[in-house]
Amino acid sequence: MPASRRRATLATVAASAGVSVATVSKVLNGRSDVSAATRSLVESLLRQHNYVASAQRRGEGAALDTVEIELDADLNAYSTEIVQGAVRAGAELDAAIVVSIRTNADRSGAWARGLVTAGRRALIAVTGDLTAGQLAALSRAQLPLVVIDPLNLPQAEVTSVGSTNFAGGLAATQHLLALGHRRIAYLGGPATAACNQARMHGYRAAMEAAGAPVPPGHVRTGHFHYQDGVAGGAALFDLPEVPTAIFAGCDEIALGVMEAARARGLRVPEDLSIVGFDDTQVARMASPPLTTVRQPLREMGGVAVRTALRLAAGERVDSHHVELATELVVRGSTAPASLGLGSTAPASPGLG
């Protein structure tokens, strides 16, 4: 293979050898748990890609490949998981990860050029809402972009990483229906957010399949914040038909609903079942522990870094949008529909 103008990464060598990045790292570190044939092949490719020479140059002051992760708000349980996965992938791929917090107002015309001047090889935007002008600026600067959980539906040429949000919303609602709940509300994030729309459509699909009507006011949107859960939960409890179960669009919203329920004297899960989305640390620390849809956030961060570095190296990606599988995690915040306060009809046959 012809040598690249840019410094080869562990991923480049691993792809050439047909082995994992971890195997290449083991060879570099002199580990013994690699077969002689594999070691010989990897060492040969390291020389061919001039990887060892690059490592020597680094000791003389050359920088690592640097990928910037831009957040649109302060770190929270959701973004911390993504950053953790990105940092781990960066270590495996011999790349530096820089984290910044930047709003749309901070993305001026010089923003993209400034990233390139600072030595960034690629940009990862977390829940970004990038404008057409900002996308054009990145394109002019030839700075690859990967978006995680985009708030707006990305253009076809924008590479993004997400999860199976529709399937997750479907599974969460089917779980509540199987427990006998019929008055199930959805309390989500921004109405225009692609991930929120998918989760809400999964909820609606499950309700429609079960023949469970969605009363007025039982679908609400706001932001993916704890306070939105508190306010949204209080509003739901004021409705003429109070829901006996709530599917929240993220774990923070779910915890806000728990607080709103506590303020009304409602017990979780005896009087109200709650399902979240993400499976962050707060879900496991909640009281009771939160039933939620696990979104593989650390894996999403890792995929985004690997994809960004491939784009920076001029490689093609198999798909402009990657979705990782979600999984329902059942804990203590959901229970069969109560026969007392807010009792509901039994679940339809076949749900469960």
TrEMBL record:
<dbReference type="InterPro" id="IPR028082">
    <property type="entry name" value="Peripla_BP_I"/>
</dbReference>
<dbReference type="GO" id="GO:0000976">
    <property type="term" value="F:transcription cis-regulatory region binding"/>
</dbReference>
<protein>
    <submittedName>
        <fullName>LacI family transcriptional regulator</fullName>
    </submittedName>
</protein>
<dbReference type="InterPro" id="IPR010982">
    <property type="entry name" value="Lambda_DNA-bd_dom_sf"/>
</dbReference>
<keyword id="KW-0804">Transcription</keyword>
<dbReference type="Pfam" id="PF00356">
    <property type="entry name" value="LacI"/>
</dbReference>
<dbReference type="Pfam" id="PF13377">
    <property type="entry name" value="Peripla_BP_3"/>
</dbReference>
<feature type="domain" description="HTH lacI-type">
    <location>
        <begin position="8"/>
        <end position="62"/>
    </location>
</feature>
<dbReference type="GO" id="GO:0003700">
    <property type="term" value="F:DNA-binding transcription factor activity"/>
</dbReference>
<dbReference type="InterPro" id="IPR000843">
    <property type="entry name" value="HTH_LacI"/>
</dbReference>
<keyword id="KW-0805">Transcription regulation</keyword>
<keyword id="KW-0238">DNA-binding</keyword>
<dbReference type="InterPro" id="IPR046335">
    <property type="entry name" value="LacI/GalR-like_sensor"/>
</dbReference>
